[in-house]
Amino acid sequence: MAAGTRARVSWFVAIALSLPLLGRAVAVPPAPVASSALRGSLVSVETTCGVPDSYPSTHGPTEALCPFCRWCCKCNANDSMDCEHSLVSPDKYGGPKGVVVFCDKCHKCTKCPAFNDMAACPRGNCCDNDMKHQPPFNATWGSGEYR
What we know:
single chain; mainly alpha; 16% helix
């Protein structure tokens, strides 16, 4: 990495780390583009909702099934009598028949802007264990997932 680029990156990191201390919004210049030597080593951020449609249900729910994760005990703040402990049958809640959603795979449904609705997936998170799930009413804060 060139010395000028290293200096810009150091300046950017120093500003970014001090932002919480400032208590107010600060304009920060965009990060420099990585050189071709670094591009292959950059980590990508997962921004998908669910798994691709071609994957089996054991890999996780597809995007269309992510809202059913809200019925899982791990994905809401309801009590033990108002949630599913290991799997959800979407047809029980008005969804398609013949498929299941495995609750232990619902962590793949936390970035679902298409379902951003307080009665479905608050803030696009279909596995938010801080919020109660009580459709058709909006989610409210709870005391965390049932354990």
